[in-house]
Amino acid sequence: MIFEEIHIKNLFSYREAVFDLTGASSDRNIALISGRNGYGKTSLINCIKLLFVGANEDMRASVLSNRALSRKQYILGAANDEWLGIMNRRARQAGEKDCEIRITWRDGSNDSLIDARRLWRLDTTGFEEELRVSLDSGTSVLHDDAAREYLEGLLPEDYLPFFFFDGEQIQRLAEANRDRLLAQIERLLNISPIDTLRENLKKLANEWRKDAMVEEKRSRLTELEGEQNTLSARINALAEKRADTLSKIDRLEHEIQEEEHRLDSHRVASQDHDKKALTGKRDHLAKELEETQDRIADSLPSTVPLLANPRLVKSAVAELRKLVENDATQQASALQDVLSDLQTDLFDKPPHSSPRLTESQIRFYKHRLESLLRAHIPRPEDMSEGLLRMELSRARALLSVLDHFAQADRERRTQAQTLQRITWLKRDFAEVALSLDDVSHLPEEEHEEFFRRKAANDERKRRIGALEQEIKHSEESRTEINKQLREKDKAIRDQEKQVRLSAAARAKVERAEQMHGFFRAYKDTLKRHKREAIERAINTHFQALVTGHALIQHIHTSMWRRISVSTSKTARVGPWPWPACRRG
C-alpha cells in the first residue's frame, strides 16, 4: 500500500489541502513530515487515522486529560469550548457543513488504484458520516460496513499506531501505562487469545466449583460475590466522578488563565509605568512569605503549645520538682533500684549455690523477695504533697523536657517575631496586589468590567478549592472501599475453602486448573520464541541500516519489556524500557 495522494477538506487545521506523493517508489517509500509547532503535522496524522478507523476510543481519549469524549462530542465539539470538534474553525465560521479525508493508493498485489473517502455532514444537533472505498480503479465500490470491514482487513486498528506515528507523542508513549502497552504488543503478536482461553478456563472452574457446593454454602458465596460486585461498582463510580472533577478543575484553571490575561490587559492600560516594579515586588514578597512559612511550619506545630503557655509550663515544672526532690520519692526510687538489681545479682549471676536451685525454687524466692521489698516502697499517691502523682522515672523525663521550655524566652521571642513578620508580609503582599488591581484611571465602564471579571475569577478559584476537597473525600472513600473489597475477597476465599466437592466435580476442577497452568507455561514459551525472533530481526536490520555504527555489536531484548546492547568492547549497556529506546 503506497499512498499517491491525500486530500483533506475542512478537517482540523486544514481548510483545503492536497498532498501529492506520486514520487514514491520501492526504494523511496518513507514519507517524513516536518514543520514548526502548530503547522498541521499532528492534524495530518489524525486525518489519516480518521479515514481508517474513524473516531475510535484512542483518538477520543487523546483530546482531554483524564476524560474520553463521546463520539458525538469528538465530531461536533464539547461543551464550554473544551474541544471544538473536527471541523476547521474558519470553515465553521463561514457556515460550511461538510468535511472529509480522501486517500488514493496503489494495491501492492495487482497495482490497482484504491480510493478511500470518509466524509461528515454536520449541523447544530448531529452529523451524518459516510465511508466509501472504490476498488479496481472504480469498478467496484464498497459502502459503510463493507468499507470498514475492507479497511480493517487491510490495516487492523491495533496496527494503526505502528504505521502512522506522531513523533510529538514519544514522551507520552514513554510515560504510558506499561500493562496496556504490553497488552497491545501481545495482540499484535497473536498471543492475547491465550489469555482469553485462560480466563474462560478460570470462569469454568469457578462455575463447576459452585455447582458442587452445598446449597447453604453456595447461597452465602453468591451473597458475598454480590456484595463484592456492589463495592466494585462503587469504586468505578468514584473513579468516574474523580475523572469528571479533574476535568472540571482543568477547565476552570484554563478559564482562570484566560481571564488573568484579560485582567492583565486592563492593568497594563491603567498603570503601565508601575507594573514592572509592582510585579517584581509582589514576586519577591510571595517568595519571602513562602520561605518564612515553610521555615516556621517545620518547627512550630510540635512546640507551639509549650511556647505559647509559659506560665502553665513553669507551674508544671515547679510541681515536678516537688515530686522529684521529695525524700519519700528518693527512698522509693532507691528501693525500686535495689529490688531490680538484687534479684538478678542474687539468683542469676555466679557463684551459684550447691546444689543449684531449681527453676521453680528460683521463681518462688524471687516472688517472695519482691513481695517483702515492695511492702516498704511508698505508693506514688503517698509520696508528694503536690498536684502530680507519677513514677519518679517519668517525672524526671518530663521535667527535663519542660524545664527547657520554661526558660525558652529567647526562642519564644524569635518565633513571635517570625509570626509578626509573616503578618507584615501578608499585609504588604495584599497592598501590592491591590495596587496592581488599581484601575481607577480607566473609564467607568472598563473599571466595572475589570472588577466583574476579577470577582468571576475569584469564584472560579473558590470552586477549584471545593472540587479539590471533593477529590480528597473521594480518595478517602475509595481507600475505605478498597479495604472492604480486600476483606470481601478474603471472605470469599474462606467460603470457597469450606466447599465440599463431589469426586466428579473435583476431577473437572482439577483438570481445568491443570489446563490453566499448561496454557500459562505455553504462553511463556511462546513469548520467549517471539522475543528471540524479534531480537534476530532487530539485529539483522540494525546492522544493515546503521553500517557506520561500529560500537554496538548486538541488541538484546527481554520479553519486549526492556532492551540493552553489547558494545565492541564486550560491555553490556542498559537495560532501558522500550519507549525510552524509541526516544533514542
From TrEMBL:
GO terms for biological process: double-strand break repair. It comes from the Bacteria. Residues 260-279 are annotated as: Disordered. GO terms for molecular function: ATP hydrolysis activity. Keywords: Coiled coil. SUPFAM superfamilies: P-loop containing nucleoside triphosphate hydrolases (SSF52540). InterPro entries: P-loop_NTPase (IPR027417), Rad50/SbcC_AAA (IPR038729). This is DNA sulfur modification protein DndD. It comes from Candidatus Kentrum sp. LFY. The lineage of its organism: Bacteria, Pseudomonadati, Pseudomonadota, Gammaproteobacteria, Candidatus Kentrum.
